[in-house]
Amino acid sequence: MKKILLVGFGNPFRRDDGLGIKLLDLIDDNVEKLKVQELTFDMAEIFKDYDIVIFIDASIEGDEISFKKITEEKTFSPLTHHTSCEELLSWTRTLYNKNPEFYLLSIRGYDFDFGEEISERALENLKKGLEFIKGFLENI
Q: Which pTM does this prediction carry?
């Protein structure tokens, strides 16, 4: 059985930016979860112990939901608070010689103002994202 980690990230106090974290609250407890505000390179130490890492985040444009497999990015950002999923995969491989599969589920948000409530349109997208993740996890 593959060891899977769901990583919800975003700011839950900026309305739809908290979609990734909110989705984790809706997932059954039979999968490991991590909620963070932002991704940092030191998380590679956590990710090395998993076969699959699925990142879940809000997007400000694009489709209602989108899902993609992450490929390694060799260039590194000098700003640690802007670490991308691609960079994290590279850090995990470089530092720990581990090769987990990384995926990103993006959920379209519309309101990123201050507050904790998710907008109505984003809630619909959240439901679609939840159904997608449930189906994906069932098929692993």
A: 0.93
- Give tens-digit pLDDT for 88-119: 999 999 999 999 999 999 999 999 999 999 99
For residue 122, how many other CB atoms are within 10 A of its CB? 25
CATH of domain 4-138: 3.40.50.1450
Asked whether the beta carbons of 56 and 85 are under 8 A apart, the reply is no
Domain ranges of the chain: 4-138
| Cα dist from 77 to 62, 82, 86, 139, whole Å | 24, 7, 11, 34
Beta strands in 1-140 (DSSP E): 4-9, 32-36, 52-59, 65-69, 101-108
Lay out the sheet containing 4-9: strands in order across: 32-36, 4-9, 52-59, 101-108, 65-69
* C-beta neighbour count of 97 within 10 angstroms: 8
β partners of residue 56? 8, 105
Half-sphere exposure of 87 (CA within 13 A, CB side): 15
